[in-house]
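Changelog entry: the HAD family phosphatase record was regenerated in this release. Current contents:
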Amino acid sequence: MTSTVPALGTRTAEGSALQAVLLDMDGTLVDTEGFWWDVECEIFAGLGHTLDDSWRHVVVGGPMARSAGFLIEATGADITLAELSVLLNQGFESRIARALPLMPGAARLLAELSEYEIPTALVSASHRRIIDRVLTSLGPQHFALSVAGDEVPRTKPHPDPYLAAAAGLGVDPARCAVVEDTATGVAAAEAAGCHVVVVPSVAPIAPAARRTVVTSLEEVDLTFLRGLIAV
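Regenerated structure tokens:
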């Protein structure tokens, strides 16, 4: 877990108990979920295998070990998990070096959270080397800290990443709003006891208790997030 700037105090609006906002990265702030799938398809094509498009829903949003392990087992490809992980990271880094599109509303939301000094963390299943590359485009000044998938004992769908982010910010997970795009990330945030806003990227996700589904980050602002958590 790496802190990028000191955690800031919250000018909490009357009637709100929001203490922090915890944000997923791929598919939530940056439009990169498709990048991972494209890289996976290219690597396995080079190994003589074609990935079934239905597998995309299985591997999206999960830790690399789980996704890569599933693809190796499903295809029977002659490659180790360690070898595939290196190729996946290299391929993804090459993609984001050429282009890193932000999701609609992402830049505006980050700017608003910074303006009102809302403690904010980036929480991703991606490895630290990937997060640090993406942070240069998102703006590290927007985040009090970031948590990478290779820095916690268990990554998403386990609650560890979100619990680590809340602990690092010194806040109560139950008073945190999490923004996620996949079922794996939602499961992690809910297991940590957070309120969740879902902007589905690949597969639909249904609303539930303490879970609000929207179609775009353009629907999400500080007033919206504060309204999720009552005093």
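The radius of gyration is 17 Å.
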